What does this fold into?
Amino acid sequence: MVLGAFAVLLLLDPLRFASPVAAPDSVPDWATDPTPVRRPSESPEYRVGVFRYGCSDCHRIIPSASEGRELPIQHTEIRLEHGINTRCLNCHHPTNRDAFVADSGAEIPWNQPQLLCAKCHGPVYRDWQHGAHGRTNGYWDTSRGEQTRRRCIECHDPHKPPFPSMVAAPGPDTLRMGRQQVGDHAGQDNPLRVLRHPRVDGAYPRIDGAEDVLKEGP
Amino acid sequence: MDVRDDRPSPGTPDLPRDPHGGEQSDGVSRRGFLTRGVAALAGMTSVAAALSPLRHLDRDDIPSIAEFFQKHYKEMTAEDKQEVFRRVQEAVKRHHGVDVELADPGPLAGVEFVYGLNLSRCIGCRKCVHACVKENNQSSAPEIEYIRVLEMEKGSIDVETANHHYPEKVVPDADKYYMPVQCHQCDNPPCVKVCPVEATWEEDDGITVIDYDWCIGCRYCEAACPYWARRFNFTEPAVAGPLNTDMAYLSNRPRPKGVVEKCTFCLHRTRVGRMPACLEVCPTGSRKFGNVLDPDSEVAYILRHKRVYVLKQDVGTLPRFFYYFDERGSRYHEPISEEVGS
It folds into this structure.
């Protein structure tokens, strides 16, 4: 009779299996956006609000900034955090502000910033030339399509060159049932290392059954 | 004397007494009938209950005759393939409501793909993971991701202490470095060796592919892979968002329930000359891809000139996925806390 009731229960299926897997989360759009982190200005210009000035518009008549570290009255928004490179004119050309300066004092065109960075960052420049550093997008087979090589300042801010930190995209959540409870391995992250490291007071952390193993030894 | 005496009187035959006390006239007692009837009913109901899940069968759970007699991918003629592709297109239309062109790009002559990943530059942002999911129509619930970004302790390459569940925090963590792991497209692939039905094989350009129509879901390959690169569809995959219609038979077409899938270096992209999706989205340029047989390619340069690390080299899988390092990473200036390594 019990069996029969159980069978009827199964047949009527009042407790139908409902998947505990939650609905998929939407992934933020930025997580799949391939555009570079920076979009540097394409021309030597200075923007104040809606106004745009060519660099040389002012610097043709205004004398060059001092060689000191102190920022002048203008450009106060620029904070130069480029390691030991603390002088504006290490990179900017002293007389032609629409160009950068080479070691020889010659001009490096505005649109060739990698030549400027190469003055100091030799190994990285070498790797970039061969594609081992920096972004290469588009087609690996250039006979079939266009390939884009990103240049230094499309990822690095020249005034603060370390690659910017960002918030990580969502991590794995296989069943979307919340984080699984991970056991506390006697305060250690790694269960395999619990027995090898005695605590400061010399005692091994307590684990059920572990004492027996330790007493018996190998 | 009217004395009741249950003892059989001497002289009367000793009739067997029915233990249930019922009538014995036709050999079936009422109690026996009820007992056996209930048992039979319970049995039949049990069978019906056991079969009841069949009510929820989808049409696609039962293979059609053509599907049943479908040949192995390598044995199919061009006409066979067109027939199969048409059937897959119909299934995609039925399930997802979109018309797709199912491509089947073959390996390119003189091309062997190799992947390079710069551990000095990866910041662990996990954008590659999500670009991959979007590109390859992976299931979102339950979740299938081909790429796992391991957060590693600085000072060694010890996957034992790696954590791929690090939260959505600001990365990179100054005390950690990051190592994304995906299919290494081995030249000596253990996953291919263990497949009992040859549903997975290594192609001429080095990509190990799976015919989802041939896979029986035994998951031997998943167990054999030392990189945890293969994923199993325990349920019907639920793709979040619109389907990527740029699909190929051996890569990102929607998978059925009960088959294994994995990274294919986006062969529907890379076999027509494009970069894989994970590389395109990488903000740091840590990911490098190309034809290693071309001496001018980026990956050929990396293998010749950079310090290269092969994950689990000792297991002899000969991966086509190489981690490499710079002389000095961009993060050399970051402090390392004193706790590391203690």
Remarks:
- Chain A touches chain B through 62 residues (CB under 8 Å).
- Confidence is low (pLDDT under 50) at residues 193-199 of chain A.
